[in-house]
Structure formats: structure tokens, C-alpha cells
Description:
Layout: E1 9-15, E2 23-30, E3 38-44, H1 66-69
Antiparallel strand pairs: 1-2, 2-3
Amino acid sequence: MQIPQDNKRHAISILYPHNSNVRGVVSFSQDSILSPTKVCCSVKGLNPNAKHGIHVHEFGDLTDGCTTAGPHYNPQGKNHGGPFEE
């Protein structure tokens, strides 16, 4: 089976948590199914003097917090969560 090389893919996630002043948009794009995913973030409301990180869940369902959002995308099995983690 040959995979088409010209299938551009795009997705966005709107950050609008109910218990925070943090707001923003994260976009994901690929030039083809085999190309790297580009992630662009525009976020407001974060403490400018602190380090921040993001993580991606499988689903956008936040009805029960992270439980219904599914697992984290973590293909290399790295520790994450803190500013000094890989």
C-alpha cells in the first residue's frame, strides 16, 4: 500500500479552562502523513517569570478532568511534568 505524500493535516485546540485565567490556541499541522508535526502555541495568562510546559492528551473530553482526556502523547516514554524533565 502506498501512502499519499500530499495529505496535509491540521488541527487546533482551544485552551479555555474553567478554573484558570490561562487562555489560548494550540495548532498542529503536518505537510504529509509522514512529515513531522509542527506545534504552535499562543497562550495568555501564564506567569512570565516561571517556566512552563505543555502536554497533549489523546482526547479533548474534560468532563472528568484528565481521566476522560485519555493518556498523554509520550512516544519516547520520557518523564514529564516538571521544568527540568526531558
